[in-house]
TrEMBL record:
Binding site for ATP: 30-37, 147-150, 176, 184-187
Protein name per UniProt: Pantothenate synthetase
Active site: 37 (proton donor)
Note from the entry: The reaction proceeds by a bi uni uni bi ping pong mechanism.
E.C. code: 6.3.2.1
Gene3D superfamilies: HUPs, Pantoate-beta-alanine ligase, C-terminal domain
Source organism per UniProt: Caldicellulosiruptor naganoensis
Main location: cytoplasm
UniProt keyword annotation of Mitochondrion present: no
Family to which the UniProt record says this protein belongs: Belongs to the pantothenate synthetase family.
UniProt keywords, alphabetically: ATP-binding, Cytoplasm, Ligase, Nucleotide-binding, Pantothenate biosynthesis
Length: 281
């Protein structure tokens, strides 16, 4: 496995691989790898000749009061995990390499970023779209792999690829969970033992909504209320948002119909966790 820190070097490697007719799969991450990330690597390896992962904690997608400084980082640990997985290249640039002092561009996807995480984290998806487009231009992949856990991020990237006519297939990958249902996240390490127990309520609340929908409930207000009640019964929890949207258009809905994404963000202590589920009626 080769670690590449410079943009030009990564571009040169990719150019050579493409000349040899190799297909490239790309897995963008912020590191502190877990099984969720590794599932994307496995999927990419099964569909491409070469897999490149980026590890870059992107400062421009964090708000001023968010956890950029505190975000978990352990490159040696990540390198070992990536190597064991049989990854070909890790792109590991510095902040200066990605954002030189004269950097001036912002990529902004409109409308679908007005709700959910886009509303709670102003500017977040501009930061994501900007860095992902940069990474796409550096790695020039045939396919790129994103987790369904960040469902709104996935929608933003798909929209950007469509709007800007990029020749990249975006491959959504299912959410990988701990045994008790908690979605894997690098941020789970922030949780104390007690908070970790409370955190299982995110997935429980999604399952509650699914059960109620299966029993015939279609009223989103009632479904949200049932989820809120369950979440707030738990210690340490504070709800950021619970949203029901049309899976294709990301429009907020008041009645469950067709393919629906139920998404939520909940603070457990000071840690903000997200999760979601797709239901179809
Ligand atoms: N549990 C998971 N299952 C599947 N994919 C995941 C999971 N967690 C993260 N991913 C995906 O891995 C990619 C990199 O995500 P990232 O590095 O932000 O990890 P993360 O664990 O989600 O971090 P955090 O939750 O702290 O934001 C994204 O496409 C993300 O959707
Ligand atoms: C896509 C991404 C690597 C961009 O920084 C990040 O938002 C993430 O890890 O999901
Ligand atoms: N997985 C999304 C990255 C973030 O929370 O900033």
């Amino acid at each position: 496995m080769v670690v590449v820190e410079k943009i030009q070097e990564m571009k040169d490697i990719v150019k050579k691989l493409k000349k040899e007719g190799k297909t490239i799969g790309f897995v963008p991450t912020m590191g502190y790898l877990h099984e969720g990330h590794l599932s994307l690597v496995r999927k990419s390896k099964s569909e491409n000749d070469i897999t490149v992962m980026s590890i870059f904690v992107n400062p421009i997608q964090f708000g001023p009061n968010e956890d950029y400084d505190r975000y978990p980082r352990d490159f040696e640990r990540d390198k070992n995990l990536a190597e064991k997985e049989g990854l070909d290249y890790v792109f590991y640039p510095s902040v200066k390499e990605m954002y030189p002092d004269d950097f001036k561009t912002v990529v902004s996807v409109k409308n679908i970023t007005d709700i959910m995480c886009g509303k709670s984290r102003p500017g977040h998806f501009d930061g994501v779209a900007t860095v992902v487009l940069k990474l796409f231009n550096i790695v020039n992949p045939d396919r790129a792999y994103f987790g369904q856990k960040d469902a709104q991020q996935l929608a933003v990237i798909k929209q950007m690829v469509k709007d800007l006519n990029l020749d990249i297939e975006i491959v959504p990958c299912p959410i990988v969970r701990e045994e008790d249902g908690l979605a894997m996240s690098s941020r789970n390490v922030y949780l104390s033992d007690d908070e970790r127990k409370s955190a299982t309520v995110l997935y429980k609340s999604l399952n509650l909504a699914k059960d109620l929908i299966e029993k015939g409930e279609r009223d989103v207000l009632k479904l949200k209320k049932a989820m809120e009640d369950l979440i707030l019964k738990e210690k340490y929890t504070r709800i950021d948002y619970i949203e029901f949207v049309n899976y294709e258009t990301f429009e907020v809905i008041s009645e469950v119909k067709g393919k629906v994404l139920i998404a939520l963000a909940v603070f457990v202590g000071t840690t903000r966790l997200i999760d979601n589920m797709v239901v179809e009626v």
